[in-house]
Design brief:
Order of helices and strands: EHEEEEEEEHE
Low-confidence stretches: 1-8
Strand content: 15-25%
Distance between the termini: 40 Å
Largest sheet: 7 strands, parallel
Number of helices: 2
Helix content: under 10%
Amino acid sequence: CNLIAAPLDKQNFNFNTNKLTQVPNALFALPGLKLLDLSHNMLFAYLSEAIGQCQALVELHIAGNQLTSLPESIGDLKLEILDLKDNKLISLPQRLGLLTKLIKLTVDGNQLTTIPSTLGGLQLLRDLSIAKNKLSSVEQDCLQNLSSLVMLDLH
C-alpha cells in the first residue's frame, strides 16, 4: 500500500483529505508517533485494534470518515486530543473512559444515542463536544465527575 503523507516531522503524520479506505497496521507500529491525522478520508466501518500499539500517540484526528465503531484498544492510548466528528459512530467504546490524559473530545455529527458512563472518569477533560447526535438522554453520573470541564456542547 503506497501512502502519501505530509510528515510534519518524524512524530507527526498528516494523511487528511486523501482517499484512504484502510490504515496499514504498520503505521500504528511507528515508534514515537505523537500526532496522526486521518481526517476526511474514506475509512469505513472500523479502525484496527492495532491502534492500541501507538503508545506515544497524544493527538488523533479521524473526523469526516464513515466509521461506525472504534476498537476497545483505543483505551490503551495516552491521548490528549481525540477528534471523531462527522463519522457514523453508533456507540463509543467503554474503554474510552481509560483515556485519563484526555483534555479534548469531539464526537459531533455521529449517530450516538448514549454516552458511556465511563466518560465520567476523564478527570482532565476540559472540552467535550457531542452536538448533532441522536442522544435521547445523558446520564448525570457521566458528567458530574468531569471537574475540569470548561466547554460542553450538546446542541
